[in-house]
Amino acid sequence: MADPQVCVVVGGASGIGAATAAVLAAAGHRVVVADLDADGVTTAIVTGGGSGIGAALVRALVAEGAYVVCADLDLDAASSVAAAAVGPGTAVARRVDVTSAAEVRAAVDDVVADHGRIDLMFNNAGISLLGDTEDLTLDQWNAIIDVNLRGVVHGVHAVYPQMIAQGGGHIVNTASMGGLMAAGLLTSYVMTKHAVVGLSLALRTEAASRHVGVTVVCPAAVDTPILDKGELGPVRGRDYFLKGQGIKRPVDPDHLARKVLAAVAANRAMVVEPVQARIAWRLGRLSPAFILRSGTRFVEKQRARAGANAPR
Questions:
Q1: I need a surface site. Which of 77, 99, 161, 197 has the fewest CB within 10 A?
Q2: In sequence order, what are the residues at sequence separation of 6 or more whose Cβ sits closer than 8 angstroms to the Cβ of residue 136?
Q3: pLDDT tens figures, 232-241
């Protein structure tokens, strides 16, 4: 038999979830049922929930019957997502600036105060900056570190001790294919996402004995507003992400959200989507030199294309 694992079963108090939990327990695995608040409801926080992957996660969780705090810097966006989510669950909007440790902790503390526990924490908020590294200001470097890296640290710092105290839970950190492979013209983003991957995998090894699961999400380009934001120069984000990752269409965020929840239920360490991304990642591990040469040529092509399309 394979080594026993900690398995988090979302909705494991009844029905299919309960049956899944029973099978896993019979196989010798440690099972954490993620719906143990007073009302038998899974509790979750999703940062960056007002759009993109975060909004899709909110929809998927509500469809599964969870109580979800849709947290975002833009309260109007979070409110729209929460109001539109359909299912037996409930979503509530909350303004949270992930660069503020106090605001993140307050969101966690309020869920625990109201429900007795927090089952799932999705550290998902993020920004991107696309352009030549020499054009980045120190303020821009600090901004992307504050959101993409410190935002995740604030989430982990607030929720991890609580999950240990309550006997289990699951932390999901959103990184990117940029956290598995290096890409020029996106240096600051790549740096932060590599850090998120490292944090997640290291914490996973530490958290397993505390019955807390950790999953890191590393998708290729997802069809979200971030594809068209953060452009510092003539390089276009959507063209860069799709061509650089060898995919014709961006990943559907709702499809990705379902994959993420399945990974949480199975306590998987990583989600890498789509299949082209998994192939590229494995190729990069087999031949790093080839990937670096390819990346260098890609940057040159992007600069040439941007130059050709620049206003004259």
A1: 161
A2: 129, 187, 188, 232
A3: 565 666 566 6
Q: Are 47 and 124 in contact (CB under 8 A)?
A: yes
- How many angstroms separate the CA atoms of 129 and 124, rounded? 17
Contact 67, 143 (CB under 8 A): no
Please name which of 192, 254, 246, 240 lies closest in space to residue 52, comparing C-alpha atoms: 254
List 174's β-bridge partners, or say none. Answer: 217
Active-site amino acid positions: 189
First to last CA, the chain: 67
Task: Summarize pLDDT for 27-74 with one digit per residue, the tens.
Answer: 666 565 554 455 679 999 999 999 999 999 999 999 999 999 999 999
CB of 217 closer than 8 Å to CB of 175: yes
pLDDT, tens digit, for every residue of 109-166? 999 999 999 999 999 999 999 889 999 999 999 999 999 999 999 999 999 999 999 9
Amino acid identity, position 202: A
Distance CA 134, CA 30 (A): 50
Asked if residue 310 has pLDDT above 60, the reply is no
What are the start-end ranges of the E strands in 14-159? Answer: 30-33, 43-47, 67-72, 90-95, 120-123
> If we measure between CA atoms, which residue out of 205, 128, 118 comes closest to residue 155?
118
CA distance 52 to 72: 12
| CA dist 1 → 4, 23, 24, 29 (Å) | 8, 14, 12, 11
3-state secondary structure 1-68: CCCCCEEEECCCCCHHHHHHHHHHHHCCCEEEECCCCCCCCCEEEEECCCCHHHHHHHHHHHHCCCEE
Strand partners, 216: 173, 270
- pTM of the shown model: 0.84
Distance CA 271, CA 188 (A): 22
